[in-house]
Design a protein that fits this description.
This protein has 14 helices and 14 strands. The chain is of the alpha/beta class. It has a 7-stranded mixed sheet, sandwiched between helices. 49% of the residues are buried.
């Protein structure tokens, strides 16, 4: 007979999901009410207001899609891109490739700008792509590339789009709440994120925001939006302002409780304080890893503090180390993807996982595991190096 599932207690320091605060988990256990209940609608308005604050936008079309970040991505493309539209897509990792797939599947013409995995998107290459093609409708790029730990210059890239009268579509799945992000200040037209990264919420919800310019594009499409569920013209009848809401779908009520609580926690901490916390813990982790002799894939200037891609020491079995960390320490770190598989580990410091305890646990567990495998590392120095950063 099948029994209830009781998951082990893990420390999640991979590329996502991240550790979820007990406060957020407790919020999910609150009584379920109707998705058109006046009290739920009041909570929805608070979620929208907080998302606008953390996206740094006044966009009215700011809301959580009732599906994971991949659906947020699709919502941006399916609403804005029509057959024959030219879109410049930047790819410097896995998720730029998914943007390309969306453009192609919705009938657009994809102009690909490629950069080496582990490097930021080249602003000069993007300028050259605009110079070489006319009638570009949109520029699409990943702000924080989860597959590599690279942060690209979103402000500069959006300025290029603006200068060429093109929309900007931005993947902020891993950046929202972890590093600087300014939708209105940078002129971002469509942006999507996920709850399972720096917001420290369970996966399954995707915050999105569309500028007034983007909304006008959607309203003046030549063809209907080919997705009923993700058509912003329809879903805004439910997520629009005011007390009267039109039924669109049954929202994931308890998951939205969780998002609300995670946003309240971010509000209590302060957005800029959260950015600083992620950076501080990255610096401590970096000090410990480098003392151990483990190097980073990404140059410091382009490195995400919340997603650290580090080289696997020579001769070390990637999967064996990750399995040992999970078995012996209940600690999860991530494997490399694509061309980086077997070459790097991805160590996350996202949201509630960005703590001194987790940094020290990760360094201790990794050092002990690698030492047991006779890996070529320095031992007995990582914890002291990290502690020195925390004491500053």
């Amino acid at each position: 007979m099948t029994t209830s599932f009781h998951p082990p207690v893990r420390t999640l320091m991979g590329p996502g999901p991240s550790d979820v605060s007990p406060r957020v988990l407790a919020a999910m256990a609150r009584p379920t009410i109707g998705h058109l209940d006046p009290e739920f609608i009041r909570m929805m308005d608070e979620v929208k207001a907080m998302l606008k604050t953390f996206f740094k936008t006044d966009n009215e079309l700011t809301m959580p899609i009732s599906a994971p970040g991949s659906a947020g991505m699709e919502a941006c493309f399916v609403n804005l891109i029509e057959p024959g539209d030219k879109v410049i897509v930047c790819q410097n990792g896995v998720f730029g490739g998914r943007m390309k797939e969306n453009v192609v599947r919705f009938g657009g013409e994809c102009i690909l700008v490629e950069d080496e995995w582990g490097t930021a998107i080249s602003v000069e290459k993007v300028k050259a792509a605009f110079a070489a093609h006319d009638n570009i409708k949109a520029l699409a790029f990943v702000h924080a590339e989860t597959s590599t730990g690279v942060r690209s210059d979103a402000k500069a890239l959006c300025k290029i789009a603006q200068d060429n009268n093109a929309l900007s579509i931005v993947d902020a799945v891993t950046s929202l709440g972890g590093v600087e992000l300014d939708v209105d200040g940078w002129g971002i037209d469509a942006i999507y994120s996920g709850t399972q990264k720096c917001l420290s919420c369970p996966p399954g919800i995707s915050p999105v925001s569309f500028s007034d310019k983007a909304v006008d594009v959607v309203k003046n499409r030549k063809t209907p939006v080919p997705s009923w569920f993700l058509d912003t013209n329809l879903v805004m009848g439910y997520w629009g302002g005011g007390g009267k809401r039109a039924y669109h779908h049954t929202a994931p009520v308890n998951s939205l409780y969780a998002l609300h609580e995670s946003l309240v926690m971010l509000e209590e901490e302060g957005l800029e304080n959260a950015w600083a916390r992620h950076q501080k813990h990255h610096l401590a982790l970096r000090a410990g890893l480098e003392a151990m002799g483990i190097g980073f894939l990404v140059d410091e200037a382009d490195r995400l503090p919340q997603l650290n891609s580090v080289y696997i020491p020579e001769g070390v079995d990637d999967a064996a180390v990750r399995a040992a960390l999970l078995k012996n320490y209940n600690l999860e770190i991530g494997a490399g993807l694509g061309a980086l598989a077997g070459k790097v580990w991805r160590i996350g410091l996202m949201g509630s996982a960005a703590t001194q305890r987790n940094v020290m646990l990760c360094l201790d567990a990794l050092e002990n595991t690698l030492a047991d495998m006779n890996a070529p590392i320095n031992t007995g120095v990582a914890a002291q190096a990290a502690a020195a950063v925390f004491s500053e």
